[in-house]
Amino acid sequence: TFSTRSSYGKAQRSYRLKSDRYLSRGNCIIREQNRVIGEIVLPNLASKDKHEFSIGEDANIIYKENVTLISNQTSSDKRRSSSIYEIHIQIKNFKENSINIQYEQKGFYIHHSYKLMKSTKHQFIQDGSSIKSNMTLKANMDEVYSYTVEIIN
């Protein structure tokens, strides 16, 4: 959920499995770089079905999200207010391989309306009540991404 406060943490270890044949329900062991990192129970999957799941946090990918209020205006009748925020996301990849990141900021539905105004260096999109982006981060890299959003209450 969108918050005007800064946040930090570890990335969710999430996967999207698409089967090329029928898979019956059963245990699935998840490996990364020949290391066991988790286990889940897969449901029955038909050919071409997709199954998305998460198995906790990844300590090798951390993020820090800073939210800065740029401007705040209230209408003369005090019925509407408009706030512009700049969001900076710093992501650090401590892994020895590149990673794909799916960023999603949810929770804009609680406001009357919102609008993605601009993004720098990277493509962000407005999708329903979320801001989304797909990124690739090289091994042992640290990147900062940013976008600006206007929220109207």
Question: How would you describe this structure to a colleague?
Answer:
With 153 residues, the chain is mainly beta. The protein folds into two domains: 7-13 and 59-152, Immunoglobulin-like, CATH 2.60.40; 14-55, no CATH class. The chain is built from no helices and ten strands. A five-stranded antiparallel sheet has the order 1-4-5-10-7, with no helix packed on it. Strands 6-9-8 form a three-stranded antiparallel sheet, with no helix packed on it. A hairpin with a 2-residue loop joins β2 (26-32) and β3. The relative contact order is 0.21.
Major β-sheet profile: 5 strands, antiparallel
What class do helices, strands and sheet pairing give?
A: mainly beta
Give the percentage of residues in beta strands: over 45%
The dominant shape is elongated
Span between N and C termini? 16 Å
List segments where confidence is low: pLDDT < 50 over at least 5 consecutive residues. none
Number of strands: 10
CATH topology of the largest domain: Immunoglobulin-like
* SSE ordering: EEEEEEEEEE
Major sheet: arrangement of strands: 1-4-5-10-7
Question: How are the SSEs placed, and which strands pair?
Answer:
Blueprint: E1 7-18, E2 26-32, E3 35-42, E4 50-74, E5 81-93, E6 99-105, E7 113-120, E8 125-127, E9 130-137, E10 142-152
Antiparallel strand pairs: 1-4, 2-3, 4-5, 5-10, 6-9, 7-10, 8-9
